[in-house]
Amino acid sequence: TYRKNVQQMMQCLIRKLATLSQYEEVLAKISSTSTDRLTVLKTKPQSIQRDIITICNDPYTLAQQLTHIELERLNYIGPEEFVQAFVQKDPLDNDKSCYSERKKTRNLEAYVEWFNRLSYLVATEICMPVKKKHRARMIEYFIDVARECFNIGNFNSLMAIISGMNMSPVSRLKKTWAKVKTAKFDILEHQMDPSSNFYNYRTALRGAAQRSLTAHSSREK
Length: 221
What we know:
mainly alpha; globular; RASGEF_cat_dom_sf; Ras-like_GEF
């Protein structure tokens, strides 16, 4: 019986490792092609560059797609990566950690990189239009996307979007912001307020977890 159980565990582990290996290959490919794509985008005339609203004009749909990406990226992060990421340094040697062979935290790093890419995407999309009214429309669009992310319980994308909108190239567009109804944004920003060790965020997270536990359908969950 034990032999059978061990064999099943080994098969499950091998499948998981194979999937993880494929995922890491995909991450490496994304990373290597992103620079090439940026070069191609820069060479295109502005008249044929498409903004994100042209590609997906429904904030709820974009929020859903962002959540799919978040869940996929999160799914491949193992608890051991957090241990490796925050491992104590050897106080006698600044270059060496307490572990002789420090494992890679590739998937955790990819998740952080995804957060940064989403923030830069938001800032870029807002800054690209020449006219103030188009920039204001883009800001309002991302506010709606952020709100939908909050409703879904996708707090990581929500924080990335808010981070992108608070970047200096966006925040200094005073005349553009004057055309935006900022009440919804102020509420979302309040939820992500870092004061009291992110008290508002932790409260919202507990509420989302409770709603998930008491949900009647898998969609609500």
